[in-house]
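Re: that chain you flagged

S.,

Sorry for the slow reply, it's been a week of failed gels. I finally had a moment to sit down with the sequence you sent. For the record, here it is as I used it:
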Amino acid sequence: MAEREHVRVAVIGSGFGGLGAAVRLRREGVTDFVVLERAGSVGGTWRDNSYPGCACDVPSHLYSFSFAPHPDWPRTFSGQEHIRAYLEHVTDVFHLRPHIRFDSEVKMMTWDGEKLRWEIETSSGSLSADVVVSATGPLSDPKVPDVPGLDSFPGKVFHSARWDHDYDLRGKRVAMVGTGASAIQIVPAIQPEVGRLTLFQRTPPWVMPRVDRAISGVERALHRALPFTAQARRGLLWGIRELQVQAFTKHPNELGFVEQLAKRNMARAIKDPALRAKLTPDYRIGCKRILLSSTYYPALARPNVDVVASGLSEIRGSTVVAADGSEAEVDAIIFGTGFHVTDMPIAERVVGAEGRTLAEAWKGGMESLRGACAAGFPNWMTIIGPNTGLGNSSMILMIESQLNYMADFLRQLDVLGGRAALDARTSAVDAWNTRVQERMKRTVWNTGGCTSWYLDPSGRNTTIWPGTTTEFRRATRQVDLSEYELLRAPAEQKTEVDA
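Prediction finished late last night. Pasting the structure tokens below so you have them in one place:
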């Protein structure tokens, strides 16, 4: 990397968000951009999460870009290896590799108010950019709880997102900490080979059957020959999920029927009443993400598995101790304890116009305008920002909506001409988030009686979008200049954009 390379746009991350941004930039005629990636390959969370059984819980034909359909998905729900291969394919088909700087972790991004640009320090050098698109994603930095005694544990310890493939689990006594989306895939994958598996469950999840199957050669040939058939398949999958949104956002009590289906799914595999009681949630289904698995409950019923209905509280040597006092001797501890979602580490590395970091600006909770732009951080936007997550559909739909917004943001800067920057007005950010939080009040995520990673430390839901993907696409179709302040270089004062 050149010592002081300057680009029009710097994209941070090369997962779905970063690669999607890169493709959209090229399609908009913007070729003066780089993608800064801290690892040595593309893929984001689908590169980092390579644990046994890792797969997506959104159907393959919906969990892919609309502009890059893939007729050859081998299964209705894709495994990690297939999704990662798809992202490599997208990188090559759209000729993105010349733009990517691998092994270039962003150390700091600082806004220069005189030059109206971002000064970026990376592990491989320095550069500057007119606009920054942060696509690091909320599932990129693993969260490991601070358990007393963990440092002195003599065995093996790793997080599900940093799986140690060199460690042989065969015959070992293993503690699995957590019962989220990763854990319910890991447990049935490793249960047959470990000596004993102790699952530490703070809160039981609702688990529905995973209706997964191989996609036949005939289906794939049809999708290749007649692309509209794959589009119709994607449209059907999307439409079903759009219809489901009302139950999550406006009528949570209607989800009781779904709970009965989930209980029947459990009862088919779990015959022991005591174990069934441990595994039955006491909150409304959907309050936490509904998990999909047809193998999780059967694995828990096996004789070499113990379910501890309590969190891990302490480690004494090779003994793991639960909050309820139960103990187990283990050789390895695997943490399936999620990620830094409402406290993303990248926020510590973004210094805005007022000299404070994004983490400081978001100290009271994450907030942005239309899930993209934060007040005081000009020409900076994030993909999968605050309140853009989904509880029942594909995040690729949300990403593509945000790419529409990014494209229009750049168009507006071109129309304004000269040295210009757009900074989201505090009043616009506040108005947007007031509307979002007002809608959030009646959703299952706020009323369902659970504590989830959707909520920040103050109990506010700053991650989920309380509506349909259609509504979000409409809200991010174009930039409303009245929601921004226009900054001019070199020494002009902030002037309000003429609405």
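What I noticed first: DSSP finds 14 helices and 21 strands in the chain.

Talk soon,
D.
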